[in-house]
Amino acid sequence: PTDRVTLEVERYFDPTCQCHKLRFSGEIPSARPNEYVTIMAQHCGARSASAFAGASTRAGGSWSTEWWERGSATYRALWNGRLSDPVSVRIEARLIVNVTRQVRGRYHVAVLTSNSPQPMHGRVIELQRLAGGRWLTVRRARLVARGSAGYGGGFVAMLKVRARGLRMRVLVPE
Prior knowledge:
5-stranded antiparallel sheet; 4-stranded antiparallel sheet; 55% strand
């Protein structure tokens, strides 16, 4: 066994679920089996870390566990009050924006998060039009959670535009 708590994180694609996962592994200073190791995560933008997974050691003090990818975070292993060095994993958040034209100049905007636990509820989006080679803001709206909001969830907004024939886009600010 090692003289400290260690943590390694490996990102991989799991063909069974067609998703990315994280494999956590390490060692603790005890050679006993069945010691409990907690995995702590502090996601980008969060003020504190929280426990989200755990593993039991094998004889010799090694351990491993797997979990679904949940966006960028800094991870630490915790055993017997001792923490591993932090390991940061940065995962690019992907948003899928779908705009559907409705009747009478209304546009339904749906924003789907594919791998981001970021709270999108209440975020402001902008409808912009191209004028003189520049994008100008026409309308703003707040996203509202729909369906399974949160991780992998959907958010929607409705925008109304009177003019026709404009070249437009929807912007989701960073």
